[in-house]
């Protein structure tokens, strides 16, 4: 969920803020808490964050990016918690990806393209490839890691 608003906006929708926390943080935590006890040794957990967690591209995004930074922090903690079971926990932080929520021909496209070193949006397949890597055998010794898939937006 993506809700924006300036920190000094006294008319901000507090219910939307709470819903964003519920979905972006508590939802991920609930899923991992439910899955972890059921996972066998050597399992994989891959969460999706945003590069906004390390580089906020515009004003009014603090609440949203804070929820995604929480996912990155949880990832590092869960990597420690689950490491003894050889379960890896990593997070992928996309930049501008062509999705329904943020289409490459949408209202933010021009500004976001300028932020990326590659000057363009990524595609869902770019994120899928990163997830497949973290879920596969070649990433067996990678845990607690954050991978930006952002065309150089955070560079």
Write the layout of secondary structure elements.
Elements: H1 14-35, E1 44-48, H2 62-82, E2 88-94, H3 109-115, H4 124-135, E3 146-149
Parallel strand pairs: 1-2, 2-3
Helix pairs in contact: 1-2
Pfam families: adh_short_C2 (PF13561)
Family: Belongs to the short-chain dehydrogenases/reductases (SDR) family.
Protein name: NAD(P)-dependent dehydrogenase (Short-subunit alcohol dehydrogenase family)
Quote the average pLDDT. 92
Strand content: 5-15%
Task: Supply the number of helical segments.
Answer: 4
Secondary-structure element order, N to C: HEHEHHE
Structural class by helix and strand composition: alpha/beta
Give the termini distance in whole angstroms. 25 Å
Major sheet description = 3 strands, parallel
Strand order of the largest sheet: 1-2-3
The residue fraction in helices comes out at 40-55%
What would you note in describing this structure?
- It contains four helices and three strands.
- The chain is of the alpha/beta class and 155 residues long.
- The chain has a three-stranded parallel β-sheet with strand order 1-2-3, sandwiched between helices.
- α2 links the parallel β1 (44-48) and β2 (88-94).
- The longest helix has 22 residues, at 14-35.
- The protein is globular and about 45 Å long.
- Belongs to the short-chain dehydrogenases/reductases (SDR) family.
- This is NAD(P)-dependent dehydrogenase (Short-subunit alcohol dehydrogenase family).
- InterPro entries: NAD(P)-bd_dom_sf, SDR_fam.
């Amino acid at each position: 969920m993506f809700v924006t608003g300036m920190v000094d906006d006294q008319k901000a929708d507090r219910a939307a803020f709470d819903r964003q926390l519920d979905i972006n943080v508590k939802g991920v935590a609930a899923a991992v808490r439910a899955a972890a006890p059921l996972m066998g040794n050597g399992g994989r957990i891959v969460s999706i964050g945003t590069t906004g967690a390390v580089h906020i591209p515009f004003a009014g995004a603090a609440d949203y990016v804070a929820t995604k930074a929480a996912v990155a922090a949880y990832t590092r903690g869960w990597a420690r918690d689950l490491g003894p079971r050889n379960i890896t926990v990593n997070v992928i932080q996309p930049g501008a990806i062509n999705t329904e929520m943020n289409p490459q021909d949408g209202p933010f496209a021009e500004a976001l393209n300028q932020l990326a070193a590659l000057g363009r949006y990524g595609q869902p397949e770019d994120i899928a490839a990163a997830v497949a890597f973290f879920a596969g055998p070649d990433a067996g010794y990678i845990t607690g890691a954050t991978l930006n898939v952002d065309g150089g937006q955070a560079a």
